[in-house]
TrEMBL record:
This is EAL domain-containing protein. InterPro entries: Cyclic-di-GMP_PDE-like, EAL_dom, EAL_sf. Residues 2-252 form the EAL domain. Coiled coil: none annotated. It comes from the Bacteria. Pfam families: EAL. SUPFAM superfamilies: EAL domain-like.
Length: 265
């Protein structure tokens, strides 16, 4: 890692040159927004780095919690404008609870100040490094669940987020990785795998979220499979405001609901 990148990293932290954006998570059966994932962006005038670069550098410098704390604080402050009765998904690195700088109760205080109840917050556990000890992962999930927060496992089916991680934990949400969603209407094996995850969620009571929906065909396929929720550019892009589902996606879901109602009657 070059020194100048570390310098840029520390300047971003010092200047707090990060702002949140929110991407809608849509109930595919009703067409309504059920939550928003809070994502972070950098003020591009201050650096050439991306947010992904920042987290890589933070891990190398042992400053993941410092960066995550800044991102979380910014998201919670902006959540004052969040619509009522929808969830706010906050990303959390699976290793931060072991960070010596980790502050317990930080989110409680910031959420209370923003007027966001714990029941509205979902901690989305991402793993930038593999956690092979599932007792640690369960400890992290228990830490947040005991405070009234819900838990989501991110990127299920990709990289470190294998099925062992799913069956050794009890999340409220599973987020199917974008690679399972990409062109799912063209590949029967992807449909089968998505259906298996859906069956698992239906039995365990978890909600399945399909990530990375980018086309009408993907949306229609996922809806026909009965997938609970969806997220992706076709449904709505990350924006600074809490936006609704896009018009084209809304029309597709409304048409499919109408057709289903007619067939039922």
């Amino acid at each position: 890692m070059k020194v100048n990148k570390a310098d840029e990293f520390y300047k971003i932290l010092e200047r707090k040159s990060i702002y949140p954006v929110f991407q809608p998570i849509v109930n595919l059966q009703t067409g309504r927004v059920s939550g928003y994932e809070a994502l972070s962006r950098i003020d591009r005038s201050s650096t050439t780095l991306t947010i992904s670069d920042l987290f890589v550098i933070a891990e190398q410098l042992g400053c993941v919690w410092k960066l995550e704390k800044l991102c979380r604080n910014k998201a919670l402050k902006a959540a004052v404008a969040k619509p009522e009765n929808v969830k706010l998904f906050l990303n959390v690195d699976g290793n931060i609870i072991q960070d010596k700088a980790f502050i317990q109760g930080f989110t409680n205080r910031k959420a209370m100040k923003a007027g966001v109840p714990a029941s509205d917050i979902v901690f989305e556990i991402t793993e930038r490094s593999d956690i092979e000890n599932y007792q640690i992962l369960q400890q992290i999930m228990k830490h947040y669940a005991d405070q009234g927060y819900e838990i989501a496992l991110d990127d299920v089916g990709a990289g470190h987020s294998g099925l062992n991680r799913v069956v050794n934990t009890t999340p409220d949400y599973l987020k199917a990785d974008i690679e399972l969603v990409r062109d799912i209407h063209k590949y029967k094996k992807k449909e089968i795998m998505m259906k298996l995850l859906l069956d698992y969620c239906n039995v365990t009571g978890a909600i399945l979220i399909a990530e990375g929906i980018e086309t009408a065909e993907e949306l229609e396929c996922l809806h026909s499979l009965g997938v609970h929720y969806g997220q992706g550019f076709f449904l709505g892009k990350p924006e600074r405001a809490f936006e609704n589902i896009g018009d084209e996606a809304a029309e597709i879901l409304e048409r499919r609901r109408s057709c289903a109602a007619e067939n039922f009657s």
